[in-house]
Amino acid sequence: MPTTSMNYRRSGSGPTVVLVHGFLLGSGFWRPLIEYLARTHDVIAPDLPGFAGSGHMPALPNMEDFSDAVLTLMDDLGVDRFSAIGHSMGGCIVQQMALDAGTRLDRLVVYASTSGRTIMAQVGPGARPPRERRAVLEKEGLEGFRRWMGPHWLADGADHPFFDECLASGDGVSLDAVEAGGVMMQDWDVTDRLGDISVPTLVIGGDRDRTFPVEATAYVARHVQNGRLCILPGAAHSGHVEQPELFNKAVGDFLTET
Question: Is this prediction's pTM over 0.85?
Fold first, then answer.
């Protein structure tokens, strides 16, 4: 039996692919992609420590600890090799996993993400810069902060049909995890280590992403050893529900190609 206390969803059979969610979200964010990938894969989607269904767990202070937490879950589930897909903060985590334990990864998908503070300083702060986020969190509290952040994840904002489900996927997040995550995202940086990532890597971004500008996303694809880039038209920070057919085609082909 698994020894981890991290909550997770698991569906399907075949080669294992692990879905790592982003900041303020949870495994429910992946529901449409889980349904698609479970036709051909064993899909595991954890709630990261401090977030959603794992909100009872202590907040983690850095990407290395999140990388270790996901790898430990795979150990507990008896999974040696797998592919990994990470969204936003989760995209940072899977890059860290590729650096920490790259020999365990078959393929890597970095989705709507960045390599860290160095490249972000070059392309701009994106939506909701750190000082503004801290001010809103202090004034509005955790729930107000989540509702303020959420509309930037979708080009259509709160009008998108997936918005409520997207926001609800993060229910249970702890204040400690939010505060620690904000600091961690400012501090983490592997921009000068991207060349050490040798696992085949697909980088996906939306041309309307206001969180991580497309230039930051494209930088990752250009600087890993074996990268390719997919930019989704009309998508912001959640392309798997904004352009699902294109997203599923790109990811499905990448995971199954020989």
Answer: yes
